[in-house]
Amino acid sequence: MILPAGQGGETEDGTLAEDFGTQLRQALANTATVLAAAGATMSDVAKFNLLVVDHNEEKFGVVKQEFDRVWGDRKPAWTLIPVPALALDGMLIEIDVIAVVPR
After folding, report:
1. What residue segments make up the domains of the chain, in order of their start?
2. pLDDT tens-digit profile of 19-38?
3. pLDDT confidence of residue 102
4. Interior/surface letters 25-42, b for 16+ CB within 10 angstroms, e for the rest
5. FRET partner for 81 with CA separation of 20 to 30 A, picked from 9, 39, 54, 91?
6. What is the CATH number of domain 7-99?
7. Are 35 and 20 in contact (CB under 8 A)?
8. Structure pTM?
9. Could you give the 3-state DSSP secondary structure of residue 93?
10. How confident is the model at residue 103 (pLDDT cuts 50, 70, 90)?
């Protein structure tokens, strides 16, 4: 079982895009990088929590589109949690996953 820290949408140099979709794609890429370091892939994600600042239907549409791109028809169980703010100024999203790698 792999339990990495939550991943936000900041780039390697700590920059946060102003756009929700860009941050979401970067957070997914950051999650994939952390999982790869532990010998896992996004397909090993069994459950995740998605924290979204100022959630709305437009953001939910972006989330569904990106999740279709990453997981297709085999999405893990997930919970979307609307929040008023996250750890960093300008941070719009955080992904917290649980991955399971078969032995």
Report:
1. 7-99
2. 999 999 999 999 999 999 99
3. 83
4. bbbbebbbebbeeeebeb
5. 39
6. 3.30.1330.40
7. no
8. 0.94
9. strand
10. confident
